[in-house]
Amino acid sequence: TQYVFRHVLVRDVAYGQIPRAARGEKHVAAADWIESLGRADDHAELVAHHLAAATELGIEVGDRARITFRRAGDRARALGVWPTAARYYSQALESWPSGDAEYPRVVASSAEAHARATGETEQFGRALDALEAADLWEEAAQLAATAAMTVWYATGYPDPFLERGLKLVEGRPASPVRGQLLAESARVHWFRGEYERAQEELAAATELLPEHGSNDLRATLLTLQGVVAMWVGELDAARGLTDAAIEVAPIGSSSRFRALANRAMFEWAEGDLEAEVPLQAAAVEEAERAGDRPNLRWLQFIEILNAALFGRWDEALRQVEEQIALGPHYRLYGFLNLKAYLLAARDQLSAARASLDEALTLAETVSDGQAAIPGFLEAAWASLVLGDGDLARRLAERAYPLALEIRHRVPGIDARVTVVIIRTGGADKWHAIHERDAKTRRIRAALLMLEGRVVEAADAWALVSPHDEAVARLEAARQLAAAGRTREADVQLERGLAFFRAVGATKMVRDAEGLLAAASSS
After folding, report:
1. In angstroms, rounded to a whole number, what is the distance separating the alpha carbons of residues 516 and 477?
2. Which of 47, 142, 372, 492 suits a disulfide with 477, CB 3.0-4.6 Å?
C-alpha cells in the first residue's frame, strides 16, 4: 500500500513538524527498509537519498553513506544518466578516505561522469594520476581513452591522453582497453589525414575483437569502418556498417551515440534532410536522456544549422548564442561562423565582424580537415556577405590545399561554399576535386553550379533545403544578368529573395538587388 498527500504543502508542513533528530532517524529507518527488499543496485538512488537527508539532519551513518553514494553513481552510470552519476560520485568523494584502496577508482568514475555531464575535462589528469599511483594501469588506460574522446569534442586535441594511454598498455598483454585506445587513435588520425597510421591502428584494433572484444569495442570499430566507407564514397556500405553498430552498442555508451550521430550525418552529406531529421532526432534523444553534454553540443550544431536552412533564423541565432556561451567545443568554430553570417545578412555588421574575428582566431588551432575545410569556406561566405571579397578569397585559398590533400570526400559542401568558390575564381580546380566525390545530391548540385548551369543547379539545390535553393537562385540571377538574360535573371532573383525577405536578411536582399542592377547595366 502507498499513501500520498493531497497537496505538496501539507506534506512539507507535516515533514517540517517532525523534530530534526527524529526526522533523521526516520530517513535511516526508511533506508534500512528499502535495503531489506533486496536488489540493492536497483534501489541505490532511493537509499542514497534517505542517507543524504539523514546526514544533513545530523545523523551519523558512518561509511554507509559514501558506499551507497558510490553504488548510486554506478547505477546511474550504467544507465547512462551522467548528471545523476556525477552528483552521487561527488557526494561519495566528500567523505571517502584518500588512503582507501578504492579511492582512485571513485576519483576516476567521478571525473568521467563530470566530463560527460558538463563537457569539462580538468578532472581527468588528477584521476589518471591517482590510478597510476595505485598501479591500476588497465583502468588508467581505459580512462585515458575516455578522456581522449571527451577532450576531442572539447578542443580537438586529445593527443596527450592518447599517448599516455598507449604508453600504459605498451608491452602488456592484449586487452579490450588496447582496442579502445587504438580505435580512438585511428579515428583521430583519419580525420587529420594520416590515413596509413589510422588504417594500421584500425586493423590492429580489429584483430583484438575475437578474444578481447566487447559490444562497445565492436560498435566503435563498426562506426569507424562506416566513416571510412563514407569518405571513400560508399554511402550504402557506410549506412549498413553504422546500422550494425547501433544494434550492438550498449545503451548510454559513446559508441552508440557516435553511431546514431553518424547515421544522421550520412543523410546530411547526401543532402536528404527529410531522411536526416528523424535520425538526428534519435541521436539527440539518446544524448539528452543520458545528459551527455559534449555529445549533445555536437548534435546541436546540425540542429541549429537546420533551423537556419529552413528559415527559422531567430531560433537559430538564439541557440547559437547559447552554444557559444558554453565555451570551447569542437563545433565552436562552426557556431561562430554561422553567427557571423546570420548577423551580417541582417545588416548587424559590427557584431558579425566580431564573431568572424573570433572564428578566425580559433581557426589557427583546428587540426583536421573535417573541421578546417568547411570552417574556412563558411568564414569566406560570411566575409563575402560582409563585403570583404579579399578576405573571402584568402580563406578559400586556405581551404583548397586541405581539400586537395584529403584522400576522398570533401566535407561541408553546400550552396554557400559553392558560391564562394565561384566568386573567388576557384570553379575549375574545385570542379576537379568534386569529380572524384560520391555523386550525392549536394555534389551533383555543386557540379552543375561550377559548370555554369546555374538554373539547373538551383533546381538541384532545392532538393536539399530552402536556404540552399535561395542562395543558388541569387547566384543564378547574377550570372544570367551578366549574360544579358535579364528576364530570366528577374525570375531567379524573385525566387531567391523570397526566402531572405522572410528571415529579415535585409543586407542580402539589398546586395542581391544591387548586384543584379550592376550586372544588367554593364
Report:
1. 7
2. 492
Most confident of 228-232, 287-291, 388-392: 388-392
Please name which of 197, 248, 190 lies closest in space to residue 224, comparing C-alpha atoms: 190
pLDDT digits (tens, 9 = 90+) for 151-201: 887 766 888 999 999 999 998 888 889 998 999 999 888 888 888 899 899
Instruction: Name the amino acid, one letter, at 344.
Output: A
- Cα 346 vs. chain centroid, distance in angstroms? 27
Buried b (16+ CB within 10 A) or exposed e, 318-352: ebbeebbeeebbbbbbbbbbbbbbbbbbbebeeeb
Single-letter amino acid, residue 129: D
> How far apart are alpha carbons 73 and 349 in whole angstroms?
48
* SS3 sequence of 457-514: HHHHHCCCCHHHHHHHHHHHHHHHHHCCCHHHHHHHHHHHHHHHHHCCCHHHHHHHHH
Between the CA atoms of 391, 396, 397 and 400, what dihedral angle is there, to the nearest 10 degrees? 170
Query: Does residue 359 contact residue 371 with C-beta atoms inside 8 Å?
Result: no
The three-point CA angle 266-267-271 to 5° equals: 120
Q: In whole angstroms, give the CA distance from residue 417 to residue 382.
A: 10
- Using CB atoms within 10 Å of the CB of residue 269, give its burial: 0 to 12 exposed, 13 to 18 middle, 19+ buried: buried
Contact 290, 251 (CB under 8 A): no
Q: In which residue are the cell numbers 560570411 written?
A: 382
Percent of the chain with pLDDT over 70: 86
Name the pLDDT band for 11 (thresholds 50, 70, 90): low
On whether the CB atoms of residues 294 and 119 are closer than 8 A, the answer is: yes
Sign of CA dihedral 55, 58, 59, 64: positive
pLDDT over threshold 60, residue 404: yes
Cα-Cα-Cα-Cα dihedral sign, residues 501, 505, 508, 511: positive
Q: Where are the alpha helices (DSSP H) in 364-463?
A: 369-386, 389-405, 415-423, 427-435, 441-450, 454-461
pLDDT of residue 416: 97
Measured CA distances, 475 to 337, 375, 410, 493 (Å): 21, 21, 22, 8
For the chain, give the mean pLDDT: 87
pTM of the model: 0.78
Is 275 within 8 Å of 431 (Cβ atoms)? no
The Cβ of residue 463 has, within 10 Å, a number of other Cβ atoms equal to 16
Q: What letter represents residue 22's amino acid?
A: A
Per-residue pLDDT of 69-109, as tens digits, reads 888 888 888 777 788 889 889 888 888 898 999 999 999 99
